[in-house]
Amino acid sequence: MAITGFPAKYGLLLGLYVAWLCYASTAGEATCKLKATFNLSGYKKVEKKKVIIGGMFSVHNRLASTGNSTSSVPVSSGCEGFNFRTFRWTQTMLFAINEINNSSKLLPNTDLGYVIYDSCFTISKAVEGTLTYLTGQDYAVPNYRCGNGAPLAALVGAGGCDLSIATARILGLYYFPQVSYSSSCSVLESRFQYPTFLRTVPSDEHQSVAMAQLVLRFGWTWVGTIAADDDYGKYGIKRFKEIVEEAGVCISFAETLPKLTSPETIQRIVRAVTESTAKIVVVFSSDVDLSPLVEELLRNNVTNRTWIASESWVTSSLIARRPNIMSVLGGTLGFAIQRAEIPGLQEHLLRIDPYQDALTEEFWETAFNCTLSYSRALRNARAAREAGNATASKVSTRAAIEGLCNGQESLQKLNSTYSDVSQLRLTYNVYKAVYSVAYALHNLEHCVPGKGPFEGGTCANISNFEPWQLMYYLKNLRFKVPHTGEEIFFNDGEVMGYYEILNWQRASDGGVTYTSIGYYNSTAPTNKRLFIDNSSIIWHNDMVQAPRSVCSERCQPGTRMGIRQGEPVCCFDCIPCADGEISNTTDARGCIQCEADYWSNANRDACVPKTIEFLDFGEALGITLIVIAVFGALLTFMVVVVFMMYLNTPLVQVNDPLLSFTLLLGLVVTFLCSIVFLGKPQPWSCMTSQVALAVGFAIVLSSLMGKSALLMLRARAIKATKAAAKAAKAAAAASEQSPDTTAIAPAAPPKNDIDPIKPIHQRVMMAVCTLIQAVACTVWLILLPPHPVKNTAAQNIKIILECDPGNIIFICCVFGYDVLLALLAFVFAFVARKLEDHFSEGKCVTFGMLVFFIVWISFVPAYLSTRGKFMVAVQIFAILASSFGLLMCVFLPKCYVLLVKPERNTDEMMIPRAKSRDSKATGTSASLSTATEANGTTISTVSLND
Q1: Distance (Å, rounded) from C-alpha 946 to C-alpha 942?
Q2: For residue 472, pLDDT beyond 90
Q3: Span 67-85, mean pLDDT?
Q4: Residue 570 and residue 564: Cα distance in Å, rounded?
Q5: Nearest alpha carbon to residue 667 among 382, 883, 944, 375
Q6: Given this model, what pLDDT does residue 745 score?
Q7: pTM for the predicted model, two decimal places
Q8: Which of 154, 225, 503, 936 stands the most exposed, by the fewest C-beta atoms within 10 Å?
């Protein structure tokens, strides 16, 4: 019936248009087709199940090799290399699901199904399984969920880090939960990249830190590293290196295990291990990737190394069950995740039906090295016969029967990795992962309407929920694992880092025993996270002493580390600290300079006070110098006494006795002032010693200069008298030859004319010269007086206490003035050296001054070449020697005449005269005076013979 107001022809046109649209839609659908069909193996049970849990395990180790031809349709590769350990994990998931389905407390109204795929330890298979799982059919249709079956809950898996990263990226697109049991790499911590990823295994961040703390705990600074060529190995070893290198540990070698078998690479790694001096090798790898390297190590008998194992292989039977493995890996330390006992699991593992499915059948045939198919056994027997050139069919039939399994073989007697439940660690993680999904589903199912977590207080329907709704319950989950009581909760998808530290020790049968020696707990205080019982460790070759692994031995206190050019910082030379520097810690980077009053001890590990040195009164040298000085002063005093006794005799009176006494006083001052140089320098002693010495020598030298001036003038007067006598003699001779000529001889000078200066003049000269020195010393003491100082520069290990002159100009002027006086006295005495009296006083003064000069000229190099208290000793010796020289040369002849030859102490003997050149004349002959009268003129002559 036509619609009112609508023409029939338009209705026909509308029908034709709708028919065209339907055809076009059908034709469009026909153009969509699958590009590939995946070849996946595993377990699947979804019929009449309320919720489906996915699983992914690396039951095989690798893909089967296929041709690379592009001339035919590509096929999804199969898998090879059956792994008993991961097959046990697969059966653990099945066991947990069956246990949950049989529980009356957990999901009592929900029957769980499962879809489990084999990832073959490769990313491509993991991606294939993920896509197929999300599609809900045996083939993958991206972005589609095909069929009306039970909802998918979560994926348990997918094994290694690389596999989980690949699956997590896909599942994250749909906000589909993923709970991993073994993917521990730290990169998966990012919730920005992997929003729906959770795991029951601790992050490798904790394991890397624990490994680093273990290395640092034993003081190993020279280690090698080996990592798998995947995210698990790369990120784990990278974090380990960051921590240990920051703490000063050096990496001897860093090698990477290939994912595909490469004998050349494995041999290169073995060479790196054997050629390195590092005794510690840290390995971050799975057991599958490590297995080829272990084979090569056994073949090359690489021993004397301690291996640090990551949790992925430390309890792996694939590694530990190899023959003679303890010769290479004995003493290994490794970190293992928490271990548990799962009641009923072993019975489940031993009850499996070999005919249940293709995967179990392959396990059975691999485990017992047989086949469950008679036709396959017969084919195998024929192949063996052809290879062995056998001819009898009876033999081939018997061989086929021998290679055939009956399905009744005992797994318990097999003693394989599959049935070994002594180290349920990753297996326990699988168990926890399945129960995590189950408890999340339980909480979702028992949500109270109106109090739900979703908009409007609604709840999700257990029969038809979205993945993000289950994700909410997983993130807020907290439950206790059955049988173990361990509380599980996710902190932003992570669990706490707890590891048991195991030590590989030799069992009684020569195998491996995993001995617990400590633990690492990331939630404990920083200083208590790592605990190790050192006494429980048995190292490689059954040693109880921890091995040392250093590039260079530690530098002990007293030395510093000298880095070798072009080598790691752990390779260094220990250089002793220089004098005055110390290092009081082990492995010091540099030496510490001691303070000014301290010096390094013999071991260069401590600063000790410097030895304080000065010439003390109590030491032998000081006592000796004191005795000599006192003896000199006493001797001088004795001379004074002698002169006092013979004060009125001609010898004492001949050259101003007062000058003699001032000279002796000056010598007493110089003798006694040398004592002040001894002892610890004090301000008063520094000033007294220097000033007393300068003034004392000024008195001595000015007195000598006064005496020498008189002698010099007498000598000049005698010389004039001599000239007059010659003239008179010449005149007398002329008168004898010419009687007509009267020769008038010049008159001889009177006796008083011989001493042109009086004693008062000598005394004034001495007083003025001494006063000048006294004034100079006073100015010195007022402006810049001498003061004690600590001389730390002369000798490194000593502090020399000495007197600083205050100002070099002043001391040069003061003692330069003494030198000037000495030169004048010497010149005056030298001029009068030929003047003869009874004791030749001019010669005595000349010799005394020569001794004075010789002593002080010798003093200069001796003083400059000595250090410390010996400089003071040299100075005192010079003072005493010069004083004794003057005393002996000037006063010894006089004392000899006074005490031994008193008959020579007469006025006649004291008359000065020039030295006679007549060989018959003696120096002590008296002068003869003759008076001749010529023409009534008296001529007085002195016998002066040239």
Answers
A1: 12
A2: yes
A3: 76
A4: 9
A5: 883
A6: 47
A7: 0.65
A8: 936
Query: Residue 617 is encoded by which pair of tokens?
Result: 């009164």
Whether the bond into 278 is cis, omega within 30 of 0: no
Tokens of residue 840, six digits: 């030749």
CB 698 within 8 A of CB 920: no
Among candidates 194, 134, 111, which has minimal Cα distance to 494?
Answer: 194
- 3-state secondary structure string, 15-82? HHHHHHHHHHHHHHHHHCCCCCCCCCCEEEECCCCCEEEEEEECCEEEECCCCCCCCCCCCCCCEEEE
Residue at 379: amino acid letter: R
The least confident of 92-101, 167-176, 469-478, 604-613 is: 604-613
Q: Average pLDDT, whole number, for the chain?
A: 83
Name the pLDDT band for 751 (thresholds 50, 70, 90): very low
Q: What burial letters (b/e) apply to 498-526, b meaning 16+ CB within 10 Å?
A: bbbbbbbbeeeeeebebeebbbbbbeeee
Q: Is the pLDDT of residue 944 over 50?
A: no
871-884 average pLDDT score: 89
Which of the residue ranges 474-478, 499-503, 746-750 would you say has the lowest mean pLDDT? Answer: 746-750
Angle at 577 between CA 574 and CA 583, to 5 degrees: 90
User: Could you tell me if 255 and 311 are in contact, meaning their C-beta atoms sit under 8 angstroms apart?
Assistant: no
Residues 6+ apart with CB under 8 A from 129: 38, 40, 42, 56, 117, 118, 119, 158, 167
Quote the tokens at residue 240: 């380990």
Q: For 174-223, where are the alpha helices, taking DSSP H only?
A: 204-217
Does residue 544 contact residue 372 with C-beta atoms inside 8 Å?
Answer: no
Give the SS3 label for residue 499.
strand
CB 405 within 8 A of CB 365: yes
State the amino acid at position 921 in one-letter form: A
Whole-number Å distance between alpha carbons of 592 and 581: 5
Give me the amino acid identity at 635.
L
DSSP, collapsed to helix, strand or coil, labels residue 84 as helix
d(CA 144, CA 126): 18
C-alpha distances (whole Å) from 267 to each of 233, 330, 647 are 19, 21, 114
Q: Which two three-digit tokens encode residue 354?
A: 């070999």
* CB environment 930-946: b (16+ within 10 A), e (fewer): eeeeeeeeebbbbebee
Q: Strand ranges (DSSP E) for 631-691?
A: none
Tell me how far apart the alpha carbons of residues 423 and 287 are, in angstroms, rounded to a whole number.
15
Half-sphere exposure in the Cβ direction for 655 (13 Å, CA): 29
pLDDT at 218 over 90: yes
- pLDDT tens digits along 730-748: 888 877 766 554 445 454 4
Q: Indicate whether 377 pLDDT > 70.
A: no
CA distances to 523, 529, 945 from 497, rounded to whole Å, are 7, 10, 125
Q: Residue 16 pLDDT more than 70? A: no
Rounded CA-CA distance 672/370 in Å is 119
What residue has token string 């007086």? 785
Cβ-based neighbours of 279, under 8 Å, separated by 6 or more: 220, 222, 304, 305, 306, 547, 548, 549
Non-local CB neighbours of 287 within 8 Å, separated by 6+ positions: 85, 312, 313, 316, 318, 319
Q: Determine the distance from the C-alpha atom of residue 733 to the mean position of all C-alpha atoms in its chain, rounded to a whole number.
A: 107
In the chain, the amino acid numbered 22 is: C
Residue with tokens 């059955």, as numbered in its chain: 482
Averaged pLDDT for residues 218-224? 93
Give dist(CA 98, CA 101) in Å, integer.
5
Question: Tell me, what DSSP letter sits at residue 103?
Answer: -
The Cα–Cα gap between 294 and 576 comes to 44
Q: Above 80 in pLDDT, residue 686?
A: yes
> What is the percent of the chain where pLDDT is above 90?
44
Which amino acid makes up residue 203? S
The whole-angstrom separation of Cα 418 and Cα 59 is 11
How confident is the model at residue 913, as a pLDDT? 55
CA distance 418 to 366: 12
